[in-house]
Amino acid sequence: METQDSSGSEDCPFCEIVNATVDTEVLLSDEKLLCFRDTTPGATHHYLVIPRTHIDYCKALKADDIPLVERMVQMGRQVLEKNKVSCLDDVRMGFHIPPFSSVPHLHLHVLAPASKMEPKSQLRYGPLSHWFITVDKVLTQLKTRGRVK
């Protein structure tokens, strides 16, 4: 099963955050999403936006999930604004492609300033990374093919 209620994902660390069974500072939240800092930041500002409902990976997304992904982007921008990131053009947002996801729960990486990421972070999140897909590419694939490749 690719999606399930977060309460049924006891082994998932992000479901534990959703269920408030671990101590994590939630920066923003709403009825569908929540946002917190990445514990191993790849940029000065590195946040994760996750759905409250467990979705394994970006490859599990379908065309019906476009509004969810768009809302994740919106929340990512909100947390950047809240944290006084002035240049919203120097932002990198995207997902790791399995098997390169560290946690098997859909999470949008929000990184800024992207131009100042260290070389190691560029390998993981940069434009030449083979295992990181930008949110724009995900949305394009969902709109044209109905699934992420």
Describe the structure.
By secondary structure, this protein is α+β, with helices and mostly antiparallel strands. It has a single domain, classed as HIT family, subunit A, CATH 3.30.428.10. It has 4 helices and 8 strands; from the N terminus they run βαββββαββαβα. The protein has helices at 13-18, 66-82, 119-125, 135-144, and strands spanning 3-4, 26-29, 33-37, 45-51, 54-55, 92-96, 108-112, 132-134. The strands form 2 sheets. A 6-stranded antiparallel sheet has the order 2-3-4-7-6-8. It has a two-stranded antiparallel sheet with strand order 1-5. The longest helix is centred in the middle third of the chain and has 17 residues, at 66-82. The two termini are 18 Å apart. Mean pLDDT is 90; it is low at 1-8.
Unreliable spans: 1-8
Sheet with the most strands: spatial strand order: 2-3-4-7-6-8
* Total helical elements: 4
Let me know the number of strands.
8
| Overall number of structural domains | 1
The outline comes out as globular
Helix content: 25-40%
Provide the β-strand percentage band: 15-25%
- Taking Cα atoms only, what radius of gyration do you get, to the nearest Å? 14 Å
In short:
The chain is an alpha+beta fold and 149 residues long. Helix content is 27%, strand content 22%. The chain has helices at 13-18, 66-82, 119-125, 135-144, and strands at 3-4, 26-29, 33-37, 45-51, 54-55, 92-96, 108-112, 132-134.
Keywords:
22% strand; HIT family, subunit A; two-stranded antiparallel ribbon; six-stranded antiparallel sheet; 27% helix; globular; alpha+beta; 149 residues; disordered N terminus
